[in-house]
Write a structure and sequence with these properties.
Strand content of chain C: 25-35%
Helix content of chain C: 10-25%
Helix content of chain A: 10-25%
Order of helices and strands of chain C: EEEHEEEH
Mean pLDDT of chain C: 93
Number of domains of chain C: 1
Strand order of the largest sheet of chain C: 3-4-5-6
Radius of gyration of chain C: 15 Å
Number of domains of chain A: 6
CATH class of the largest domain in chain A: Alpha Beta
Largest sheet of chain C: 4 strands, antiparallel
Number of helices of chain A: 25
CATH superfamily of the largest domain in chain A: FAD/NAD(P)-binding domain
Oligomer: heterotrimer
Structural class of chain A: alpha+beta
CATH topology of chain C: Folate-binding fold
Chains: A alpha+beta, B alpha+beta, C alpha+beta
Distance between the termini of chain A: 98 Å
Mean pLDDT of chain A: 92
Radius of gyration of chain A: 38 Å
Strand content of chain A: 25-35%
Low-confidence stretches of chain C: none
Low-confidence stretches of chain A: none
Shape of chain C: globular
CATH architecture of the largest domain in chain A: 3-Layer(bba) Sandwich
Structural class of chain C: alpha+beta
Number of strands of chain C: 6
Largest interface: A-B, 55 and 54 residues
Number of strands of chain A: 51
Largest sheet of chain A: 7 strands, mixed
Number of helices of chain C: 2
CATH architecture of chain C: 2-Layer Sandwich
Shape of chain A: elongated
Bound molecules: zinc ion
CATH superfamily of chain C: Folate-binding superfamily
């Protein structure tokens, strides 16, 4: 047993020793320890190196505010967590911790020696240093910085853990399980309200865990805590979540909580989650988030062994650790005396308390006297000594700050007073008010149904916290319709009385501080940096923050924000409340990406919608491509074919016999009602009123801006019933737009819309032999050319299955689209494949489809168009019902810009070299030059090898393109320029003879 | 499984043959619902009584209400939108009766039998599995109510029969995703 | 995540059931062909984008399927009231009274 660990006391299981390693050294702690307390108990003071200057750093706190003791925790492959606070990491058997920011080793660090931490890296160094010369960035700055900087190193392997996620609702959410949170939860739940109590620590109790010396209602604090915890646990309406951080407070009392389920055990049990995300909607929120002690800002205040005074008390009382043998205390607040006295009474030699305040409360000096502790009022620390651990301080009064008396020590306990934790309150958009008496901000105006109680509201005394918590819990119960709890007053004995320090007193030292007096320990920002920022003209606290990066590390400035503010305010000569605070943003503490992703990983990362025929495509070796959320077969390679050869074969088969393709993903909407035709008249450019029952028409839909939005075939099933199809990707948007106009623009029309996209599987059959193929299996439909012409729809049966049979074609060949109820899509497809064998039927994918339609000059919305093309641009004036008084986008077609002659128009391009296939997206120029800059007059929208034509073809949009037909344009590519002849966009069967057979 | 279509072809259901039982009682039980005919009915509230006559079943008037009969069910999903569920054998007569109604009361009845698949979700952990991805307060949702909502990354229609018994209606192409999601959530929440 | 009080479903519903649908009361000219270029330009492009009270449209896409209007404070993000499409724009006095009423207790 060493001299740091006490012989008894604390909340440790001393019969449960745990072995762990730090930097490869094997050490021992107990169950109940944190990594920090276990290190301290082993006399380990040096934990890591700082981020920017690589200064040796130790442990400064005992909680989640820790900014110095950041380590990597290695739980095995893929389970390396960087920048873990040693103060919150519970010890487990076999824990492996490594320090950060040190290279080559913790005790000997090149960064610190190289003087990289010299004046170069002062405020704004990122902005100033790496500006020039440009080539230095790649060759010098980046490699060096990569080695030296960064907040730890990220794991490389895939995260093997799983994460749970759930929505929860409650009447009252209590954030924080300290004294105020406990009584709030008691009062809120007594009448039956559903209460969730969340606390970030391993057990509830908060500050009570560090103050066993007080009595509550006549019981020792820990007894009271135990019975309170039992009472809460016994209530069915209470959920107690420990190791759970409320990291974000969003609108309407919606909070994000992370419950850590296994980090205290090492790895999670197989199959069980590491963490759980709680998305809680609470009717009322009680914030009992406590407060955080402020460091003092003096030169060399970051040496290992210098820590917050309250933390030292926590280590003593809760963890049974004396943080040092010869501490010096420096403070601007009464509470540090409590730590000094408790340590002294535990046998630690506390010799001196430096109090920055001029006047010391008499009861403190009396007790100090009794314990033989010297108090130096109006004194602070001028500087500190010690390499890897503080070894002495120079105590000086403010007027003689350069000199001072050397006091040797092995640790320094500091306190600048306490800052209420208003992070969540601030995130809730509440506004803060400045309290001069405590030198801090507290909640002022609430914008959500919440209330703060205890230290986070500026009430630091235990008795106040207990009473105010109960009051807040009772109110929350009442507001949600439940009886508040009975007990409103708690009797406290043995409490340490507090008189407060002003912020000015606590940061007094800084004006005089020279050398490195740290404000933000994690980002290595000094008082001098903040003063320099102000000096350089940064007068807004938000700018000072960004320029110096103070408060921007993963600790979010929990210990530094108010000190930065005080220093900036002093430098600016304006009061703290005038300067204001920077914005608090979620997350309160670092939150793993894994828990935020939750279930959304692996096959649940994204929905993959599969058509009813997808399984056939998969079994037959299709290569898929994503189209929106759908996956569609792109091509069906045979025996080692590449895409080019497969597509050529698929195209050829379709042109010469039969191609079969799955078009089920098309959007489909059934439009029903007496006014259905009129409704479509207004939606589409085309005229629908005269479309006969049983006929189809290609429909073109514009936005109100006159640009093409979507297209598809519409079939009229009955006078008041249309089967509308949309593009695959446009389906949801078209439906929403139709509903919008139906509900809000033309609510007088009797028409209704139903999405039937998934009702029907669609099998597209194209090629000269299609009619022969299906004829034997069709019932109730005359397939003859005369009875069932191109662009018609019939209802009947195929293989006994009801079908809506469209005679349409997107390939230019005789085409039928067989719509069958989606459950039968696969079976019908299989039958067609069997029957089609005698015609050498070939399945084709989206790639062949694209080639076949491009040969015919059929556009694809979103490929030939990009939201700036009119029907005229696409050569589709024929689709516009000129006589209609109105349709969506009609008015815009008359806007002056839509009529200018040099708009980009759809044309075909035939490269001079027929074997060369242009790049889609390539720019088109009028001049045969690769000189830069060249004026671009358009771009290639589609480009393929056409097996049918035995040459390359392309579609393009080109300025005044139709006038250029027959002329030449140029496509500059790296190293060469490709000439191409401008052609009509229809390359194959321009008169449509193959369609009407 | 009775099908309305007289054919030798076999209907395809991406959830066919799937069941999931987790825990002893079981705590979470998933099974595809029996197939049935489904219709989307859009009708002005004024003609609702006539529609109920045509349906030969109750049709509730307010959003979120549902009427569950032995064979036929009607779910009110919007101010003028209902989902009707019926045995396949009744489908044709429903279509005929509504087409007669169309003569006197304009409305829209569209066959959506194959748009969605039903999943039965029950057991003591059913609500927890659903709340893993559904933001609604399912505990306080009254039994016998229904709603269209969101589960994880998919739209669903949710029917609550009681706290331990739900039915989901999910678009076919989303159904395997939802099945996987519930299975995954159910397994994670075992711990 | 906001809770949105759809005027049809009449209960706070989670935001992910909705999609935003632009500014409300952008009246489409009854006869667009007779609208001047300036009027049509205003309909197509001019939006108010205020910091404060904003009239906007929402679509309960994963709920009842209805479009409706809402008055929302774009600074606090809070919904002040919702009303059905086609109903008149609420008076400022009514909105202000509701804003006071909606302050947390
Ligand atoms: Zn709604």
């Amino acid at each position: 047993m060493n001299s740091f660990r006490t012989e008894q006391g604390g909340r440790l299981c001393r019969d449960r020793p745990l072995g762990f390693t730090f930097e490869g050294r094997t050490l021992q702690g107990f169950k109940g320890d944190t990594l920090a307390s276990a290190l301290l108990a082993n006399g380990v003071c040096l934990v890591g190196r700082s981020y920017k200057y690589h200064r040796p750093r130790g442990i400064m706190s005992a909680g989640s505010e820790e900014a110095s003791a950041l380590v990597g925790i290695d739980r095995g492959e893929g389970r390396f967590d960087t920048s873990t606070r040693a103060t919150t990491q519970e010890l487990f058997e076999g824990l492996k911790a490594v320090s950060q920011h040190c290279w080559p080793s913790l005790r000997f660090d090149a960064g610190a020696l190289a003087g990289l931490g010299g004046p170069v890296m002062s405020a704004g160094f990122y902005y100033k240093t790496f500006m020039w010369p440009e080539s230095f960035w790649e060759r010098v700055y980046e490699p060096v910085l990569r080695k030296l900087a960064g907040l730890g190193r990220a794991p490389v392997a895939t995260d093997p853990d799983i994460y749970s996620s759930r929505y929860a609702h409650c009447d009252v959410l209590v954030v924080g399980g300290g004294p105020a949170g406990l009584t709030a939860a008691l009062a809120a739940s007594e009448g039956g309200a559903k209460v969730i109590l969340a606390d970030e620590q391993s057990e509830i109790g908060g500050d009570l865990l560090s103050t066993p010396e007080v009595q509550i209602d006549g019981q020792p604090a820990w007894n009271w805590l135990k019975s309170t915890a039992q009472t809460l646990a016994s209530r069915d309406n209470v959920t107690i979540l420990t190791r759970t951080t409320a990291f974000g407070y969003y609108q309407q009392n919606f909070l994000g909580l992370v419950e850590r389920l296994s980090d205290h055990l090492g790895a999670a049990r197989p199959g069980s989650p590491r963490e759980r995300l709680w998305r809680v909607r609470a009717r009322r929120v009680v914030l009992a988030t406590g407060s955080i002690e402020r460091p003092l800002v003096f030169s060399g205040n970051d040496r290992p062994g210098i820590m917050l005074a309250g933390a030292a008390k926590t280590y003593l009382k809760r963890y049974g650790v004396r943080v040092g043998q010869r501490p010096v205390v420096v403070t601007a607040h009464d509470s540090a005396y409590a730590s000094a006295f408790e340590l002294a009474e535990a046998g630690v030699e506390v010799r001196t308390i430096l109090d920055q305040r001029a006047h010391i409360p008499a009861h403190l000096s009396k007790r100090a006297d009794r314990l033989g502790i010297e108090i130096l009022a109006g004194h602070t620390i001028a500087r500190t000594c010690g390499h890897l651990r503080v070894s002495a301080v120079y105590a000086a009064s403010f007027d003689a700050i350069k000199g001072g008396r050397k006091i040797s020590c092995d640790c320094v306990l500091m306190s600048g007073g306490w800052t209420p934790s208003v992070h969540l309150f601030s995130q809730s958009r509440g506004t803060l008010k400045w309290r001069e008496d405590i030198g801090a901000y507290v909640p002022d105006v609430y914008t959500q149904n919440a209330v703060s109680a205890g230290a986070c509201d500026g009430d630091f005394l235990l008795s106040e916290a207990l009473n105010r918590g109960a009051e807040a819990g009772g109110l929350a119960a009442g507001a949600t319709g439940f009886e508040p709890g009975g007990q409103n007053r708690f009797g406290v004995a043995g409490e340490f009385p507090l008189s407060a320090a002003s912020l000015e007193e606590s940061t007094h030292a800084t004006a005089a501080a020279r050398g490195k007096a740290f404000v933000d320990f994690q980002h290595d920002v000094t008082a001098g940096d903040i003063e320099q920022a102000v000096c350089e003209g940064f007068h807004s606290i938000e700018h000072v923050k960004r320029y110096t990066t103070t408060g921007m590390a993963t600790d979010q400035g929990k210990t530094s924000n108010l000190n930065s503010l005080a220093i900036a305010s002093e430098a600016l000569g304006r009061g703290a409340p005038e300067v204001g605070l920077t914005t608090f943003r979620p997350p309160y503490t670092p939150t793993s990406f894994g828990v935020l992703a939750g279930h959304s990983r692996g096959k649940l990362f994204e929905v993959t919608r599969k058509s009813p025929i997808d399984s056939w495509a998969e079994e037959n070796g299709a290569v898929f491509e994503p189209v929106g959320l759908w996956r569609r077969a792109r091509y069906f390679p045979r025996d080692g074919e590449d895409m080019h050869r497969a597509v050529s074969r698929e195209c050829k088969a379709t042109r010469t016999s039969i191609g079969i393709s799955d078009a089920s993903t098309l959007g489909k909407i059934e439009v029903v009602g007496p006014d259905a035709a009129e409704f479509l008249n207004r939606l589409y450019t085309n005229t629908w009123t005269k479309l006969g029952v049983g006929r189809c028409r290609y429909g073109l839909m514009l936005g109100e801006d006159g640009f093409i939005h979507d297209d598809g075939v519409v079939g009229r099933l009955a006078e008041g019933r249309f089967h509308v199809t949309t593009t695959t990707g446009g389906a949801a948007g078209v439906f929403a737009k139709m509903e919008d106009y139906r509900q809000t623009e033309w609510p007088d029309l009797d028409v209704w819309l139903t999405s039937i996209s998934e009702q029907w599987a669609v099998i597209a059959l194209n090629g000269p032999n299609v009619r022969k193929l299906i004829a034997p299996f069709i019932e109730g439909i005359d397939l003859s050319k005369e009875a069932f012409p191109h662009m018609a729809i019939r209802e009947g049966k195929i293989f006994g299955v009801p079908t809506r049979l469209f005679r349409v074609s997107f390939t230019g060949e005789l085409g039928f689209e067989v719509n069958v109820p989606s459950a039968y899509g696969l079976a019908v497809w299989q039958r067609l494949m069997e029957a089609g064998a005698e015609y050498d039927i070939v399945p084709y994918g989206t790639e062949a489809l694209h080639v076949l339609r491009a040969e015919k000059g059929y556009i694809i919305v979103g490929q030939e168009t990009d939201g700036t093309q009119t029907p005229h641009d696409m050569g589709m004036d024929w689709a516009i019902g000129r006589k209609k008084p109105d349709f969506i986008g009609r008015r815009s077609l008359g806007r002056p810009d839509m009529l200018v002659p040099n708009r980009k128009q759809l044309v075909g391009l035939l490269t001079t070299d027929p074997a060369y296939v242009l790049e889609e997206g390539a720019q088109v120029t009028a001049e045969n030059t690769s000189a830069v800059p060249a004026r671009m007059i358009g771009h290639v929208t589609s480009s393929y090898w056409s097996e049918t034509l035995q040459r390359s073809i392309a579609l393009a949009v080109v300025e005044a393109g139709r006038k250029r037909i027959g002329g030449e344009v140029y496509i500059p590519m790296p190293g060469t320029v490709y000439p191409a002849r401008v052609a009509e966009p229809v390359f194959y069967d321009p008169n449509g003879e193959r369609l009407n057979v | 499984m009775s099908e309305p279509i007289e054919t030798r072809l076999k209907p395809f259901n991406p959830l066919a043959d799937k069941t999931l039982a987790l825990g002893g009682r079981p705590d979470l039980f998933l099974r595809p619902e029996d197939e049935c005919a489904r219709f989307s009915l859009r009708v002005p509230v004024g003609a609702l009584k006539k529609a109920a006559v045509a349906f030969e079943g109750n049709i509730p008037e307010n959003i979120g209400e549902m009427s569950v009969g032995t064979g036929k069910s009607a779910l009110c999903l919007g101010p003028d939108e209902w989902l009707l569920l019926a045995p396949y054998r009744d489908a044709q007569s429903i279509i005929v009766r509504f087409s007669q109604l169309y003569e006197t009361a304009a409305h829209s009845l569209v066959d959506v039998s194959y748009c969605t698949l039903g999943i039965k979700v029950c057991g003591p952990r059913a609500r927890l599995a659903l709340n893993s991805g559904c933001p609604l307060d399912l505990e306080n949702m009254p039994a016998g109510r229904c709603t269209r909502t969101v589960l994880a990354k998919a739209q669903i229609i949710l029917l609550k029969f009681d706290d331990q018994h739900y039915r989901l209606e999910i678009a076919r192409s989303f159904a395997p995703y939802i099945w996987e999601f519930l299975k995954n959530a159910g397994k994670i929440e075992e711990h | 995540m906001l809770l949105i009080d759809c005027p049809y479903c009449r209960q706070g519903r989670p935001e992910i059931e909705f999609s935003h649908a632009g500014e409300a009361h952008m009246e489409r000219p009854a006869d667009p062909e007779t609208a001047s270029d300036a009027q049509w330009e205003a309909f197509l492009f001019h939006r108010t984008n205020p910091a404060g009270i904003h009239f906007e449209r929402w679509y309960h896409i994963h709920g009842c399927g209805c479009y409706f209007n809402a008055v929302r404070d774009t600074v606090s993000e809070k919904f002040i009231l919702t009303y059905k499409a086609g109903e008149p724009r609420p008076a400022v006095s009514e909105i202000e009274a509701l804003m006071v009423e909606k302050e947390p207790e």
